[in-house]
Amino acid sequence: MRMRKWLIVIALILVFVLSVFCGFMVKSYINFSKKGSENNAILAENTQENKAVNTASAEITVSPNSEVIMTQKFNKCGHTVTKREEAPREIVNLNREKVQEYFEGWNIDKFTPNEIEISKEVSGICGEHYVLRESDGYISISTKNDIGEYIFKGLTDIPVQYLPEDDLNNLEKGIEIVGRDNLNRFLEDFE
Question: What's the pTM?
Fold first, then answer.
């Protein structure tokens, strides 16, 4: 009989523990459900109040690896000089309007993320009008400015002592050459 009493007491203790455990689980489930529905309500409210902002831009901007093609048209000599160079860092991610401000005085002819073509007219002559003369036994190079003055640029390492008489006479008068490529070809002929 004693044994039976102990079994009943143990059974009652087990029922009590299971009841407490089940009560705890039900309470936790109810709290979790309430918090979930509250969170859903807050999320729905925030979604309605704060509409999604579109961060994509349809505006064209300069990419980091773009090039600038600069064309200058010189009125006095009629030449056009075009240079292609990497875009300056200062204009990366700028739009057309800001790039126009950066290149003040230039016209934007083409504007894409990878290539910008700009141009302007310049009164005067381009910097590719060269004059070759004899100076200190070597061929010297000068450039001609807008008012016809010659500006000394330097001496070549080509001595004039072995040149034919006709070339020496032409150097004495001054040999005018237009364009850097033409200058290089001409000087190669003397070497």
Answer: 0.56
